[in-house]
Amino acid sequence: MKKSLNHCIPSVDWSEPRVPSVKLTHRNIHFLKVPDKVALKAQVIVGLTHRNHPEGLREALHSALQQDVSQAVAFLVLDDSSDEGWMRTLENPLLSDPRLVIAAGRFGSPPQARNALLDLVDQRFPSARWVARMDADDRFATTGSLQELVRAGDASNCSFVIGSNHLSVNGTVLPSINFARAETLQDRQRLAGC
């Protein structure tokens, strides 16, 4: 007779703010394609995190490369311990683009990889003013999406701007836009996956 594991999952009270905890990990971040002078001068960094999703990453990169942005842009791929050979899916013209930087490390989860991406930008890209974070299944909604996010951030003199995107599932871009809505972003249970 199998026991239910439901009794092992503690009930979480999301009505009060959570107490922050510190979890240290050895990230072992290293560059697989080092930043070129062009990338180091970029004011806007499009950061893409992935783990064993090279086909989606390639499509996300193509979406990012199609952005019409007036500022200097670089593209930072951060791999989270993917299987060997994942870079073979990126074609040579893409790999030879001086704006493309590729780094790898051990992060343990998508949120930790995204945080490591922000840390890496802070440490290695001195001209960066904005970071657009994407996952391998994300696509920009239009070719002007990134420019509009930068314009909105600059006009509002704010620290961050949250935008919307398209999602790709099994190679098919879903027709509906994945909107960033305040009610979703403030729903702690939904964000926690409950």
Automatic annotation (TrEMBL):
<dbReference type="InterPro" id="IPR029044">
    <property type="entry name" value="Nucleotide-diphossugar_trans"/>
</dbReference>
<protein>
    <submittedName>
        <fullName>Glycosyltransferase family 2 protein</fullName>
    </submittedName>
</protein>
<keyword id="KW-0808">Transferase</keyword>
<feature type="domain" description="Glycosyltransferase 2-like">
    <location>
        <begin position="51"/>
        <end position="166"/>
    </location>
</feature>
<dbReference type="InterPro" id="IPR001173">
    <property type="entry name" value="Glyco_trans_2-like"/>
</dbReference>
<dbReference type="GO" id="GO:0016740">
    <property type="term" value="F:transferase activity"/>
</dbReference>
<dbReference type="Pfam" id="PF00535">
    <property type="entry name" value="Glycos_transf_2"/>
</dbReference>
